[in-house]
Design goal:
The protein has nine helices and 17 strands. The chain is α/β, with parallel strands linked by helices. The protein folds into two domains: 174 residues, FAD/NAD(P)-binding domain (3-Layer(bba) Sandwich); 135 residues, D-Amino Acid Oxidase, subunit A, domain 2 (D-Amino Acid Oxidase, Chain A, domain 2, 2-Layer Sandwich). The strands form three sheets. An eight-stranded mixed sheet has the order 4-5-3-12-13-14-11-15. The chain has a six-stranded mixed sheet with strand order 6-2-1-10-17-16. Strands 7-8-9 form a three-stranded antiparallel sheet. Strand 1, helix 1 and strand 2 form a beta-alpha-beta unit.
């Protein structure tokens, strides 16, 4: 196993090899991959696992406009898209909780850079095509009338992220080599002589051979406690949920950066806002009205459906949207996986696999260089 720099006295009670800080989808998938490899893992979460940004998002298993992203994000996205069908089936079999992975495709309405998108699709080998009204309304009969042209990607999938988080949590709770501890607030990292020693929490001191920070929007605060700068900030996103009948919306539809996502029971998620307001998670009536109007401009029939829920989450924003994955320079035994911005769920299988590969000294699934903290 990789030398993470921490050595416990021989007389002490054995501790976990890996201590993961943060129980979102990144932290839980990291724990799952390490536990699958037979390692002892402790996961600490200040609230309940999967109830922050991982719960708050929409669940589209792709960047919204993938051709507008840099190569490092595309690389992780490509791997993750292929991993979700198998992961979803695995979790259903192991936990009885269906993450509701649906591969029904996506309609892009009113895209300004169509040629760029089609060029990207040709280079990536993606089935993206320009379609007219006949195809648009065959795929989505209740879409707003009068749309003459759209882009259609038939392979795009979505997952019901709250159920994915519930399934991951249930699986980890059932694994004997995982200690999942919720409602434990990690107050600071503890390091000495250039090595991580553990963490100080609201419940006392925790030690491990390696500490992995998967704290989402809060990751930079944790790393600051050992004088490490991480360019991650909170970016609020608000969403609404319509209680719609099954069949009103059949697949993901995207227009002007806003989207509607159908769930298996007919409900429709509409999102989302991008707001630089620090750690403020309050919802606003202005955002609710804007999301409502955007949703109706995509599917007018949603006007007949009540808004059942309105919420906000904090994305871990980073300057370029590229997550930082790997060892933290200057602090032996400290690792990070954070800064996924709008694509935490999208990139989670790949980014957690990449980190696990490095921790376990396996050949990395992708080149780790673009994601290093010092890049």
């Amino acid at each position: 196993m990789i030398d993470c720099g921490f050595r416990q006295p021989r007389t002490s009670v054995p501790v976990s090899e890996f201590l993961i800080v943060g129980g979102g989808v990144i932290g839980m998938m990291t724990a799952l991959q390490l536990a699958d490899a037979g390692r002892r893992v402790t996961l600490l979460e200040r609230g309940e696992c999967g109830r922050e940004a991982s719960w708050a998002g929409g669940g589209i298993v792709s960047p919204l406009y993938p051709w507008r992203y840099s190569a490092p994000i595309s690389t992780l996205s490509r791997y993750s898209e292929g991993a979700y069908p198998e992961l979803s089936l695995r979790l259903l079999e192991e936990t009885g909780i269906d993450p509701e992975y649906r591969q029904r495709g996506l309609l892009y309405l009113r895209v300004d850079d169509e040629e760029r998108a089609l060029d990207w699709a040709r280079q990536e080998g993606k089935p993206l095509q320009r379609v007219g009204p006949e195809t648009i309304y065959a795929k989505e009969p209740n879409a707003a009338p009068g749309v003459e042209s759209a882009l259609w990607m038939p392979t795009l999938g979505s997952i019901r992220n709250p159920r994915l988080c519930r399934a991951l949590r249930a699986r980890l709770q059932a694994m004997p080599n995982v200690a999942l501890r919720e409602h434990v607030d990690v107050e600071e990292l503890v390091a000495s002589a250039g090595r991580i020693q553990g963490v100080r929490t609201s419940a006392g001191h925790e030690t491990a051979e390696c500490v992995v920070v998967c704290g989402g929007a809060w990751a930079s605060q944790l790393l600051a406690s050992v004088d490490v700068a991480l360019p991650v900030r909170p970016v609020r996103g608000q969403m609404i949920l319509f209680k719609a009948p099954p069949g009103l919306v059949e697949r993901v539809v995207l227009k002007d950066g806003r989207y509607v996502i159908p769930r298996g029971d007919g409900r429709v998620v509409a999102g989302s806002t991008l707001e630089e307001v620090g750690f403020d998670k309050r919802t606003t009536e202005a955002a609710k009205g804007s999301l409502y109007d955007s949703a109706l401009s995509i599917v007018p029939g949603l006007a007949d459906c009540p808004v059942e829920h309105h919420w906000a989450g904090l994305r871990p924003g980073s300057p370029d949207g590229v997550p930082r994955i790997g060892a933290v320079p200057g602090v032996e035994g400290l690792w990070v996986n954070a800064g996924h911005y709008r694509n935490g769920l999208v990139l989670a299988p790949a980014s957690t696999r990449l980190l696990a590969d490095q921790l376990l000294q396996r050949t990395p699934v992708v080149d780790p260089a673009p994601y290093r903290l010092d890049t």
